Fold this protein.
Amino acid sequence: MKHKIVVTGGLGFIGSHVVVELQNEGFEVVIIDDLSNSSIEVLKGITSITGIQPLFEKLDLRDKPSVIDFFKRHHDVMGVIHFAASKAVGESVNLPLLYYENNLNTLIYILQELQKKETSNFIFSSSCTVYGQADTLPITESAPIKEAESPYGNTKQIGEEIIRDTCKVSENLKAIALRYFNPIGAHESAKIGELPIGTPQNLVPFITQTGIGKREQLSVFGADYPTKDGTCIRDYIHVVDLAKAHVAALNRLIKGDNTGNYEVFNIGTGQGSSVLEVISQFEEVSGQKLNYKIVERRAGDVIAAYADTSKANKVLGWKAKLNLKDALSSAWKWEQNLN
Ligand code: WQD
């Protein structure tokens, strides 16, 4: 019997890669997406990879009656993996209420429906952004949660607290929050990948768009940081490795292997790479020089962040297998396939 899993935001960058891995594992997937930051074409990409078209419902999860109706119709749902959220750090500073409504009301409505079920499993898309600039590197799950630098980051912190407090009083609800480091890359088929709308905010899509000629030049936001080459350090994880971590987390809950009904895991490679190292690796992978210039720092950037992944490795039984070169090669192949 196939377990039915709901993936909210399942047509997004990370969500679509998780849907592929869930289908590969034999789960039946229902995607909910409002298409505000994704394209229906992604459904074709998923189907062409796995040969199975996931069920899809276009829903605005801010509409509580729609959420209630959905879970009434899909009463056999075994678990929910929740990606649907607004995620642009800069935009969240200008539109805080849009972020608090879209990222938190939707979470609350879904949890209210899961609370009604005999048993349910919930995986939450969280972020290393909750750590801010950690005092100690690599970052473990017990690192202190710092004051959020943006409403977006705050919605991840508050979201985790909402889930934690709900799980405390709902024996039937089990949850895992995955704190992602920096997801990059694309499925090896180049049929799904990152589809930033407008000017990419993140480093790797800006690099690949510069490489393909869609962007004139990459601006490197600061080269005067106290790091090996002056540029910021991040833990870039291949999106397929990240997707597999979600399946591992879901299986952990379904099998009842969890200790306590709310757990948190850092999902990264454990390796830190500087912006200049990413650029140089991209030049090697693409066989071409990248046009970039050093400009002033970007507000809100932390100097360095990379994961201590021992808890995910030992407890979750998951470890990243792909490296920066693999991820940049897949990102570059995806960009070339798009154009
Ligand atoms: C990485 C590095 C930039 C663009 C963000 C969110 C985080 C998570 C992942 C959602 C930094 C530098 C970037 C550019 C640059 N998203 N950079 N030129 O900021 O680490 O994390 O995405 O959960 O919440 O904050 O990722 O890719 O934006 O930046 O020099 O054009 O690349 O300064 O050092 P970030 P990023």
Remarks:
- The pocket of WQD is lined by residues 87, 89, 127, 129, 182, 201-203, 206, 218-221, 232, 234, 275, 298, 301 (CB under 6 Å).
- The first strand starts at residue 4 and ends at 8.
- The chain has eleven helices and 13 strands.
